[in-house]
Amino acid sequence: MAAVATVASAFHRSPALPRGFALEGVDLARSLYLLPTAIVGGEQAAAAVIAGHGWPIGDGALAFTAVAAILRRPEGGADLAVAPFAELVNWAEREHPDLCRYVSDSLHRIGRRRPAWGGVAMDAPVVMGIVNVTPDSFSDGGEAFGTEPAIARALALVEAGATIIDVGGESTRPGADPVSPEEEERRVVPVVRALAERGIVVSIDTRHARVMEATVAAGARIINDVTGLAGDPQSLATAAASGAAVCLMHMLGDDPRTMQADPRYACAPLDMLDQLEERIAAAERAGIDRARLCVDPGIGFGKTAIHNAQILGSLALLHRFGCPVLLGVSRKSFVSHLSQGEPPRQRLPGTLAANLAGLDAGMQILRVHDVAETVQAVRIWQAMRAGA
């Protein structure tokens, strides 16, 4: 109960949508945020959109029928007011032409169809299986350390229902020792090549440009960088030239060793969004089209358990970018911090709870260790949503 109360404190509740905007010199994108709420699926979603009472998410099976308008406070924090979808549209039209354009543009980004990412259709939830070719990852270090064990683990995850395999050769847990790009490349390239030759969609989890280049050449279709292409000066150019799809993750700072030292935010969900916006802009300037991008809120990377809970409680904010959203919560420490201190292998129930909340918020990709269990949960969720 204490955690739930703290999640609510991320935003100050307001009884009504704000009035009398003074928009001169205001950057609306850094002042006003739209959080889709009252998300429905199946026939309810279709009926709401047809009647003008709702709006689609990613032109898919979900739609939202209410919106929380979140307004930043200059002194820190933010005010939140919830209104039916139609009321929000009418409010924007009455308030100011600039506000009307901003809301309209935001809604169209939220609602537009997400293109295939890494060759994978984004019209239904996708499970990404984790293969750590490392001796020291926080949850499964050493289990797939070596080319043959890693290939075997990946094939088992595909058999269990994973659509994408995310291969990593360096642990990015807090305090982990860095691995040289040369050693990381030695660990992962044979694994990536073997999987790609079998037609498996491979993502490479790396923050080093050299490893990005080598693994894309070996067949990886996706670059998944925990630093959002900010950790290596060559990453932006390398990713742009590769033609691969890219996942930009949010992390406070660019060094996993120090990210948990003392993370602070004025408002964690909104600061995370603003920083991701900057990384998207940097990627686009480097020549990476937005259609190649996916975003990840970076749960556990430079965030306390409370920051994580606040972000998880407002995940639908991430649809503002018009990109697929990847959620990575698998076995992470926030589960034990918000529960009873369970070790990584005993965090599956909390992981599933967070992932199902992510599906309810419209997340397209779930990155997990426990593929079979997650696939089963996703299928039940889909059946329930389709029958709504």
UniProtKB/TrEMBL annotation:
One of its GO terms (cellular component) is cytosol. Pathway: Cofactor biosynthesis; tetrahydrofolate biosynthesis; 7,8-dihydrofolate from 2-amino-4-hydroxy-6-hydroxymethyl-7,8-dihydropteridine diphosphate and 4-aminobenzoate: step 1/2. Its EC number is 2.5.1.15. Keywords: Folate biosynthesis, Magnesium, Metal-binding, Transferase. Coiled coil: none annotated. It catalyses: (7,8-dihydropterin-6-yl)methyl diphosphate + 4-aminobenzoate = 7,8-dihydropteroate + diphosphate. It is an enzyme of class 2 (transferase). Its cofactor is Mg(2+). One of its GO terms (molecular function) is metal ion binding. GO terms for biological process: folic acid biosynthetic process; tetrahydrofolate biosynthetic process. It comes from the Bacteria. This is dihydropteroate synthase. It comes from Magnetospirillum fulvum (Rhodospirillum fulvum). The lineage of its organism: Bacteria, Pseudomonadati, Pseudomonadota, Alphaproteobacteria, Rhodospirillales.
